[in-house]
Amino acid sequence: MPAELTFAAPRRAKPPRHLADLSPEERRDVVSELGEKPFRAKQLAQHYFGHLESDTAAMTDLPEASRDRLREALLPTLLTPVKHITCDNGLTRKTLWRAFDGVLFESVLMRYPDRATLCVSSQAGCGMNCPFCATGQNGLTRNLSTGEIVDQVVSVARDLARGEVAGGPGRISNIVFMGMGEPMANYRRVLDSVRRMTDPVPGGLGISQRGVTVSTVGLVPAIDKLIAERMQVRLAISLHAPDDELRDELVPVNTRWKVAEVLDAAWRYADTTGRRVSIEYALIRDINDQAWRADLLGRLLKGHLVHVNLIPLNPTPGSKWTASRPEDEREFVRRLEAHGISTTIRDTRGQEIDGACGQLAAAEG
Protein backbone atom coordinates (compact mmCIF):
# COMPACT_ATOMS: atom_id res chain seq x y z
CA MET A 1 0.00 0.00 0.00
CA PRO A 2 1.18 3.59 -0.50
CA ALA A 3 2.83 5.07 2.56
CA GLU A 4 -0.12 7.29 3.40
CA LEU A 5 -2.41 4.26 3.63
CA THR A 6 -0.30 2.20 6.01
CA PHE A 7 -0.99 1.77 9.71
CA ALA A 8 2.47 1.58 11.19
CA ALA A 9 3.19 -0.23 14.43
CA PRO A 10 5.65 1.31 16.89
CA ARG A 11 9.25 0.33 16.11
CA ARG A 12 10.38 -2.49 18.40
CA ALA A 13 12.91 -5.29 18.47
CA LYS A 14 12.17 -7.95 15.86
CA PRO A 15 11.11 -11.47 16.85
CA PRO A 16 13.82 -14.07 16.25
CA ARG A 17 13.93 -15.59 12.77
CA HIS A 18 11.90 -18.77 12.51
CA LEU A 19 11.49 -21.47 9.90
CA ALA A 20 7.88 -20.33 9.36
CA ASP A 21 9.09 -16.86 8.35
CA LEU A 22 10.96 -18.33 5.38
CA SER A 23 10.14 -19.89 2.04
CA PRO A 24 11.51 -23.39 1.36
CA GLU A 25 14.32 -21.84 -0.70
CA GLU A 26 15.24 -19.44 2.10
CA ARG A 27 15.29 -22.29 4.61
CA ARG A 28 17.75 -24.20 2.45
CA ASP A 29 19.96 -21.13 2.20
CA VAL A 30 20.07 -20.75 5.99
CA VAL A 31 20.88 -24.42 6.50
CA SER A 32 23.64 -24.25 3.91
CA GLU A 33 25.13 -21.17 5.58
CA LEU A 34 25.37 -23.22 8.78
CA GLY A 35 27.48 -25.78 6.95
CA GLU A 36 24.68 -28.35 6.92
CA LYS A 37 23.40 -30.29 3.92
CA PRO A 38 20.51 -28.38 2.28
CA PHE A 39 18.07 -31.29 2.66
CA ARG A 40 18.14 -30.72 6.43
CA ALA A 41 15.80 -27.78 5.80
CA LYS A 42 13.16 -30.13 4.44
CA GLN A 43 13.64 -32.46 7.41
CA LEU A 44 13.09 -29.59 9.83
CA ALA A 45 9.99 -28.47 7.95
CA GLN A 46 8.64 -32.03 7.91
CA HIS A 47 8.96 -32.20 11.69
CA TYR A 48 7.48 -28.75 12.31
CA PHE A 49 4.62 -28.73 9.80
CA GLY A 50 4.07 -32.47 9.37
CA HIS A 51 4.64 -33.79 12.90
CA LEU A 52 3.96 -30.50 14.76
CA GLU A 53 7.30 -30.92 16.54
CA SER A 54 9.39 -27.89 17.55
CA ASP A 55 11.99 -29.60 19.74
CA THR A 56 15.06 -30.57 17.74
CA ALA A 57 16.09 -32.93 20.55
CA ALA A 58 13.20 -35.16 19.43
CA MET A 59 14.28 -35.11 15.77
CA THR A 60 16.33 -38.28 15.73
CA ASP A 61 16.94 -38.17 11.97
CA LEU A 62 19.10 -35.07 12.48
CA PRO A 63 22.75 -35.46 13.51
CA GLU A 64 22.93 -34.94 17.26
CA ALA A 65 25.79 -32.48 16.85
CA SER A 66 23.65 -30.31 14.55
CA ARG A 67 20.43 -30.12 16.52
CA ASP A 68 21.22 -27.17 18.77
CA ARG A 69 22.65 -25.17 15.89
CA LEU A 70 19.58 -25.81 13.75
CA ARG A 71 17.24 -24.99 16.62
CA GLU A 72 18.92 -21.66 17.29
CA ALA A 73 18.87 -20.74 13.61
CA LEU A 74 15.40 -21.88 12.61
CA LEU A 75 13.30 -23.13 15.54
CA PRO A 76 13.70 -20.66 18.41
CA THR A 77 10.91 -20.49 20.99
CA LEU A 78 8.55 -17.77 19.77
CA LEU A 79 5.54 -18.14 22.05
CA THR A 80 5.06 -19.17 25.65
CA PRO A 81 1.53 -20.00 26.84
CA VAL A 82 0.73 -17.89 29.90
CA LYS A 83 -2.59 -19.60 30.56
CA HIS A 84 -5.34 -21.65 28.98
CA ILE A 85 -8.93 -21.04 30.06
CA THR A 86 -11.84 -23.14 28.90
CA CYS A 87 -15.61 -23.33 28.76
CA ASP A 88 -18.23 -25.41 26.93
CA ASN A 89 -16.94 -28.53 28.71
CA GLY A 90 -13.46 -27.78 27.45
CA LEU A 91 -14.48 -27.57 23.78
CA THR A 92 -13.70 -23.83 23.72
CA ARG A 93 -10.19 -22.92 24.85
CA LYS A 94 -8.63 -19.48 24.90
CA THR A 95 -4.85 -19.23 25.13
CA LEU A 96 -2.95 -16.18 26.26
CA TRP A 97 0.50 -16.08 24.66
CA ARG A 98 3.60 -14.16 25.66
CA ALA A 99 6.10 -13.35 22.93
CA PHE A 100 9.89 -12.95 23.23
CA ASP A 101 9.52 -9.27 24.18
CA GLY A 102 6.73 -9.79 26.70
CA VAL A 103 3.82 -8.66 24.53
CA LEU A 104 0.58 -10.55 25.08
CA PHE A 105 -1.98 -11.75 22.56
CA GLU A 106 -4.65 -14.42 22.29
CA SER A 107 -6.02 -17.26 20.23
CA VAL A 108 -9.25 -19.21 20.67
CA LEU A 109 -9.91 -22.83 19.69
CA MET A 110 -13.55 -23.82 19.15
CA ARG A 111 -14.39 -27.48 18.61
CA TYR A 112 -17.62 -28.51 16.92
CA PRO A 113 -18.87 -31.97 15.91
CA ASP A 114 -17.78 -31.48 12.29
CA ARG A 115 -14.79 -29.09 12.57
CA ALA A 116 -12.23 -27.37 14.77
CA THR A 117 -11.80 -23.65 14.23
CA LEU A 118 -8.88 -21.61 15.51
CA CYS A 119 -9.20 -17.83 15.80
CA VAL A 120 -5.73 -16.29 15.58
CA SER A 121 -4.25 -12.86 16.28
CA SER A 122 -2.27 -10.94 13.67
CA GLN A 123 -1.18 -8.03 15.88
CA ALA A 124 -0.54 -7.40 19.56
CA GLY A 125 -3.25 -4.82 20.09
CA CYS A 126 -4.95 -2.95 17.27
CA GLY A 127 -4.72 0.53 15.82
CA MET A 128 -8.23 0.74 14.36
CA ASN A 129 -9.68 2.30 17.55
CA CYS A 130 -13.20 0.82 17.31
CA PRO A 131 -14.76 1.97 20.60
CA PHE A 132 -16.76 -1.19 21.36
CA CYS A 133 -13.76 -3.52 20.92
CA ALA A 134 -11.56 -4.55 23.87
CA THR A 135 -8.46 -4.76 21.69
CA GLY A 136 -9.10 -1.39 20.08
CA GLN A 137 -9.33 0.28 23.48
CA ASN A 138 -5.74 -0.70 24.23
CA GLY A 139 -4.13 0.53 20.99
CA LEU A 140 -1.49 -1.13 18.83
CA THR A 141 1.69 -2.51 20.36
CA ARG A 142 3.21 -4.15 17.27
CA ASN A 143 2.65 -6.41 14.30
CA LEU A 144 3.16 -10.11 14.83
CA SER A 145 5.72 -11.84 12.65
CA THR A 146 4.75 -14.54 10.19
CA GLY A 147 6.33 -17.08 12.53
CA GLU A 148 4.36 -15.82 15.53
CA ILE A 149 1.08 -16.10 13.61
CA VAL A 150 1.88 -19.58 12.30
CA ASP A 151 3.19 -20.80 15.65
CA GLN A 152 -0.21 -20.11 17.24
CA VAL A 153 -1.64 -22.63 14.79
CA VAL A 154 1.13 -25.20 15.12
CA SER A 155 1.12 -25.06 18.92
CA VAL A 156 -2.66 -25.50 19.17
CA ALA A 157 -2.65 -28.16 16.44
CA ARG A 158 -0.03 -30.06 18.45
CA ASP A 159 -2.17 -30.00 21.60
CA LEU A 160 -5.18 -31.08 19.56
CA ALA A 161 -3.34 -33.93 17.84
CA ARG A 162 -1.99 -35.19 21.17
CA GLY A 163 -5.44 -35.28 22.78
CA GLU A 164 -4.69 -32.46 25.20
CA VAL A 165 -7.95 -30.68 24.38
CA ALA A 166 -11.39 -31.96 25.38
CA GLY A 167 -13.01 -34.13 22.73
CA GLY A 168 -10.02 -36.36 22.04
CA PRO A 169 -7.37 -36.15 19.31
CA GLY A 170 -8.26 -34.04 16.30
CA ARG A 171 -6.98 -31.57 13.75
CA ILE A 172 -7.60 -27.94 12.91
CA SER A 173 -9.85 -27.57 9.87
CA ASN A 174 -10.55 -23.84 9.85
CA ILE A 175 -8.51 -20.70 10.59
CA VAL A 176 -10.10 -17.31 11.12
CA PHE A 177 -8.09 -14.09 11.37
CA MET A 178 -10.52 -12.56 13.84
CA GLY A 179 -8.36 -12.39 16.93
CA MET A 180 -6.43 -9.35 18.08
CA GLY A 181 -5.46 -6.86 15.38
CA GLU A 182 -6.46 -5.74 11.89
CA PRO A 183 -5.05 -8.42 9.55
CA MET A 184 -4.91 -6.14 6.50
CA ALA A 185 -2.75 -3.65 8.44
CA ASN A 186 -0.13 -6.43 8.71
CA TYR A 187 -0.71 -7.52 5.15
CA ARG A 188 2.58 -9.11 4.09
CA ARG A 189 3.02 -11.21 7.22
CA VAL A 190 -0.61 -12.31 7.23
CA LEU A 191 -0.44 -13.40 3.59
CA ASP A 192 2.86 -15.20 4.19
CA SER A 193 1.31 -16.96 7.18
CA VAL A 194 -1.69 -18.03 5.10
CA ARG A 195 0.71 -19.58 2.61
CA ARG A 196 2.52 -21.45 5.41
CA MET A 197 -0.81 -22.70 6.73
CA THR A 198 -2.07 -23.83 3.34
CA ASP A 199 1.00 -25.02 1.41
CA PRO A 200 1.25 -28.81 1.37
CA VAL A 201 3.48 -30.49 3.96
CA PRO A 202 6.45 -30.01 4.31
CA GLY A 203 6.14 -26.52 2.83
CA GLY A 204 3.30 -25.76 5.22
CA LEU A 205 0.47 -27.27 7.25
CA GLY A 206 -1.69 -28.36 4.32
CA ILE A 207 -4.93 -26.70 5.50
CA SER A 208 -7.29 -25.85 2.64
CA GLN A 209 -7.30 -22.19 1.57
CA ARG A 210 -11.08 -22.45 1.57
CA GLY A 211 -10.90 -23.12 5.29
CA VAL A 212 -9.16 -19.79 5.98
CA THR A 213 -11.03 -16.52 6.60
CA VAL A 214 -9.27 -13.15 6.59
CA SER A 215 -11.21 -10.28 8.14
CA THR A 216 -10.85 -6.54 7.73
CA VAL A 217 -12.62 -3.40 8.89
CA GLY A 218 -12.35 -2.23 5.29
CA LEU A 219 -8.85 -1.29 4.18
CA VAL A 220 -9.82 -1.02 0.52
CA PRO A 221 -6.31 -0.93 -1.05
CA ALA A 222 -5.40 -4.10 0.86
CA ILE A 223 -8.58 -5.84 -0.31
CA ASP A 224 -7.57 -5.04 -3.89
CA LYS A 225 -4.11 -6.47 -3.21
CA LEU A 226 -5.75 -9.65 -1.89
CA ILE A 227 -7.85 -9.89 -5.06
CA ALA A 228 -4.63 -9.87 -7.09
CA GLU A 229 -3.30 -12.83 -5.07
CA ARG A 230 -5.98 -15.06 -6.64
CA MET A 231 -6.27 -17.06 -3.45
CA GLN A 232 -9.35 -18.99 -2.30
CA VAL A 233 -9.52 -17.64 1.25
CA ARG A 234 -12.80 -16.18 2.45
CA LEU A 235 -13.00 -12.42 2.93
CA ALA A 236 -14.91 -11.13 5.95
CA ILE A 237 -15.84 -7.45 6.23
CA SER A 238 -16.37 -6.14 9.77
CA LEU A 239 -19.11 -3.68 8.79
CA HIS A 240 -21.16 -3.10 11.98
CA ALA A 241 -23.24 -0.30 10.42
CA PRO A 242 -24.82 0.22 6.98
CA ASP A 243 -24.73 4.02 7.10
CA ASP A 244 -21.65 6.24 7.07
CA GLU A 245 -22.84 8.50 9.90
CA LEU A 246 -22.87 5.67 12.45
CA ARG A 247 -20.00 3.71 10.95
CA ASP A 248 -17.73 6.76 11.22
CA GLU A 249 -18.25 6.44 14.99
CA LEU A 250 -18.12 2.66 15.34
CA VAL A 251 -15.33 1.97 12.82
CA PRO A 252 -13.20 5.15 12.58
CA VAL A 253 -11.39 3.99 9.42
CA ASN A 254 -14.74 4.60 7.70
CA THR A 255 -13.78 8.28 7.56
CA ARG A 256 -11.18 7.18 4.99
CA TRP A 257 -13.11 4.51 3.06
CA LYS A 258 -16.88 4.81 3.18
CA VAL A 259 -19.41 1.97 3.28
CA ALA A 260 -20.00 2.06 -0.49
CA GLU A 261 -16.26 1.87 -1.24
CA VAL A 262 -15.75 -1.03 1.17
CA LEU A 263 -18.68 -3.01 -0.24
CA ASP A 264 -17.61 -2.32 -3.83
CA ALA A 265 -14.20 -3.83 -2.96
CA ALA A 266 -15.95 -6.82 -1.37
CA TRP A 267 -18.00 -7.39 -4.52
CA ARG A 268 -14.82 -7.22 -6.62
CA TYR A 269 -13.38 -9.92 -4.39
CA ALA A 270 -16.46 -12.12 -4.73
CA ASP A 271 -16.61 -11.64 -8.50
CA THR A 272 -12.93 -12.52 -8.93
CA THR A 273 -12.74 -15.51 -6.60
CA GLY A 274 -16.29 -16.86 -6.79
CA ARG A 275 -16.26 -16.97 -2.99
CA ARG A 276 -19.09 -15.64 -0.87
CA VAL A 277 -18.13 -12.63 1.25
CA SER A 278 -19.01 -12.65 4.93
CA ILE A 279 -20.39 -9.45 6.46
CA GLU A 280 -19.63 -9.34 10.19
CA TYR A 281 -22.10 -7.22 12.15
CA ALA A 282 -21.90 -6.88 15.94
CA LEU A 283 -25.39 -6.14 17.24
CA ILE A 284 -25.18 -3.34 19.83
CA ARG A 285 -28.24 -2.44 21.85
CA ASP A 286 -29.96 0.75 20.68
CA ILE A 287 -26.92 1.69 18.56
CA ASN A 288 -27.01 -0.29 15.31
CA ASP A 289 -29.79 -2.86 15.84
CA GLN A 290 -32.79 -0.84 14.64
CA ALA A 291 -35.13 -2.47 12.12
CA TRP A 292 -34.58 0.37 9.62
CA ARG A 293 -30.83 -0.32 9.66
CA ALA A 294 -31.55 -3.99 8.91
CA ASP A 295 -33.61 -2.89 5.91
CA LEU A 296 -30.85 -0.53 4.74
CA LEU A 297 -28.27 -3.30 5.09
CA GLY A 298 -30.51 -5.70 3.20
CA ARG A 299 -30.86 -3.25 0.31
CA LEU A 300 -27.10 -2.71 0.14
CA LEU A 301 -26.36 -6.44 0.03
CA LYS A 302 -29.23 -7.72 -2.10
CA GLY A 303 -28.16 -9.52 -5.26
CA HIS A 304 -24.57 -10.13 -4.17
CA LEU A 305 -22.64 -13.25 -3.20
CA VAL A 306 -22.80 -12.57 0.52
CA HIS A 307 -23.65 -13.95 3.93
CA VAL A 308 -24.33 -11.90 7.06
CA ASN A 309 -22.86 -13.11 10.32
CA LEU A 310 -24.62 -11.32 13.19
CA ILE A 311 -22.58 -11.21 16.37
CA PRO A 312 -24.26 -10.68 19.74
CA LEU A 313 -21.84 -8.21 21.32
CA ASN A 314 -19.63 -9.70 24.02
CA PRO A 315 -19.49 -6.67 26.36
CA THR A 316 -16.23 -5.58 27.94
CA PRO A 317 -16.07 -4.57 31.62
CA GLY A 318 -17.08 -0.97 32.23
CA SER A 319 -18.22 -0.48 28.63
CA LYS A 320 -21.44 1.33 27.71
CA TRP A 321 -21.80 -1.01 24.74
CA THR A 322 -23.90 -4.12 25.31
CA ALA A 323 -25.75 -6.85 23.40
CA SER A 324 -29.06 -6.31 21.68
CA ARG A 325 -32.35 -7.43 23.18
CA PRO A 326 -33.42 -10.88 21.92
CA GLU A 327 -36.53 -9.44 20.26
CA ASP A 328 -34.48 -6.81 18.40
CA GLU A 329 -32.01 -9.49 17.31
CA ARG A 330 -34.84 -11.64 15.95
CA GLU A 331 -36.38 -8.71 14.08
CA PHE A 332 -33.01 -7.81 12.54
CA VAL A 333 -32.68 -11.35 11.23
CA ARG A 334 -36.25 -11.34 9.94
CA ARG A 335 -35.72 -8.09 8.03
CA LEU A 336 -32.50 -9.30 6.41
CA GLU A 337 -34.05 -12.59 5.38
CA ALA A 338 -37.01 -10.71 3.91
CA HIS A 339 -34.49 -9.11 1.55
CA GLY A 340 -33.23 -12.56 0.60
CA ILE A 341 -29.98 -12.24 2.57
CA SER A 342 -28.48 -15.42 4.00
CA THR A 343 -28.05 -14.68 7.72
CA THR A 344 -26.84 -16.50 10.81
CA ILE A 345 -26.24 -15.50 14.41
CA ARG A 346 -22.75 -16.36 15.55
CA ASP A 347 -22.44 -18.96 18.29
CA THR A 348 -21.80 -16.96 21.48
CA ARG A 349 -19.06 -19.18 22.77
CA GLY A 350 -16.52 -17.87 25.24
CA GLN A 351 -18.46 -15.20 27.13
CA GLU A 352 -17.56 -16.70 30.50
CA ILE A 353 -13.84 -16.78 29.60
CA ASP A 354 -13.50 -13.16 28.51
CA GLY A 355 -14.32 -14.31 25.01
CA ALA A 356 -13.98 -10.94 23.28
CA CYS A 357 -10.45 -10.71 21.95
CA GLY A 358 -8.29 -8.46 24.05
CA GLN A 359 -10.06 -8.96 27.38
CA LEU A 360 -7.68 -11.59 28.68
CA ALA A 361 -4.54 -9.77 27.55
CA ALA A 362 -5.80 -6.53 29.08
CA ALA A 363 -6.53 -8.23 32.39
CA GLU A 364 -3.12 -9.95 32.49
CA GLY A 365 -1.21 -6.89 31.36
UniProtKB/TrEMBL annotation:
Say if the entry is tagged with keyword Ligase.
no
Keyword terms: 4Fe-4S, Cytoplasm, Disulfide bond, Iron, Iron-sulfur, Metal-binding, Methyltransferase, rRNA processing, S-adenosyl-L-methionine, Transferase, tRNA processing
Please state the protein's primary subcellular location: cytoplasm
- Keyword Membrane in record: no
Q: Where in the cell is it found?
A: Cytoplasm
List ligand-binding residues for S-adenosyl-L-methionine.
181-182, 215, 238-240, 314
**Skewed-composition ranges (Basic and acidic residues):** 18-27
Q: Which InterPro entries match?
A: Aldolase_TIM, Elp3/MiaA/NifB-like_rSAM, Methyltransferase_A, RlmN_N, RNA_MTrfase_RlmN, rRNA_lsu_MTrfase_RlmN/Cfr, rSAM, rSAM_sf
Gene Ontology molecular function: any one = methyltransferase activity
Tell me the ranges covered by the Radical SAM core domain, including all copies: 112-352
Q: Where does [4Fe-4S] cluster bind?
A: 126, 130, 133
Q: Which cofactor does it need?
A: [4Fe-4S] cluster
Which reaction does this enzyme catalyse, per its entry? adenosine(37) in tRNA + 2 reduced [2Fe-2S]-[ferredoxin] + 2 S-adenosyl-L-methionine = 2-methyladenosine(37) in tRNA + 5'-deoxyadenosine + L-methionine + 2 oxidized [2Fe-2S]-[ferredoxin] + S-adenosyl-L-homocysteine; adenosine(2503) in 23S rRNA + 2 reduced [2Fe-2S]-[ferredoxin] + 2 S-adenosyl-L-methionine = 2-methyladenosine(2503) in 23S rRNA + 5'-deoxyadenosine + L-methionine + 2 oxidized [2Fe-2S]-[ferredoxin] + S-adenosyl-L-homocysteine
Write out the ranges of the annotated region (Disordered). 1-27
Q: Where is the active site?
A: 106 (proton acceptor), 357 (s-methylcysteine intermediate)
Report the co-factor binding details: Binds 1 [4Fe-4S] cluster. The cluster is coordinated with 3 cysteines and an exchangeable S-adenosyl-L-methionine.
One Pfam family name from the record?
Radical_SAM
Q: Give the Enzyme Commission number.
A: 2.1.1.192
The record's listing under CDD domains reads: Radical_SAM
Q: EC class of this enzyme?
A: transferase
- Specify the domain of life of the species encoding this protein: Bacteria
What family does the database annotate? Belongs to the radical SAM superfamily. RlmN family.
**The protein's role, per its UniProt record:** Specifically methylates position 2 of adenine 2503 in 23S rRNA and position 2 of adenine 37 in tRNAs.
Record's HAMAP family? RNA_methyltr_RlmN
User: What is the official name of this protein in its record?
Assistant: Probable dual-specificity RNA methyltransferase RlmN
Origin species, per record, is Nocardiopsis sediminis
